[in-house]
Amino acid sequence: MKKIKIIALSLLLANSFWGCEKDDICTEGTPTTPSVVIEFYDALNPTNLKGVTNLKVIADGMNEGIIFNPNATITEQKYWFNGSKLRLPLKTNAENVIYSFALNSGAANPADSNTDILNFSYTKEDVFISRACGYKTVFQLNENNPVVTDADATFWITDIEVMQSNIQNENETHIKIYF
Prior knowledge:
Layout: H1 2-18, E1 36-41, E2 52-59, E3 80-83, E4 85-88, E5 96-103, E6 114-130, E7 134-141, E8 147-149, E9 159-162, E10 166-167, E11 175-178
Parallel strand pairs: 1-11
Antiparallel strand pairs: 1-4, 2-3, 2-5, 5-6, 6-7, 6-8, 7-10, 9-11
């Protein structure tokens, strides 16, 4: 009788391992909801990447900017992006998002800072990844997007080119901004 209990318990334990499937674990490299990838280019030489200086990006309805430098010792500097390639999230619960792009944020002379407003309109679709990972949202930019506006009519962004309107991953540049 004791042997039957041990065999039954062993079979039950072995069966529990067979119940696990490969897709019960969401691996770290699994693609998730992508951000829009933006590259900045020199307007005078459009083939050359050009880094922005102290770019502060604030989403509409937010008081603070997106944090790019969490370890910055000066509070304002944690919001500054310096470089030529930027990733920004799109809202998964809306069909548009508005960002303020403040170039040279924190400049000693406020006249050296300039803010343009970009409005991204898009459609979204939830795509099933796996049982463990759930869904990710992919985006399709609407035509003539993004739209640039500016409160003071002095645009620092001279042109925008949409390279890929279908935003499914972060492996490619979606938008080029010339300044």
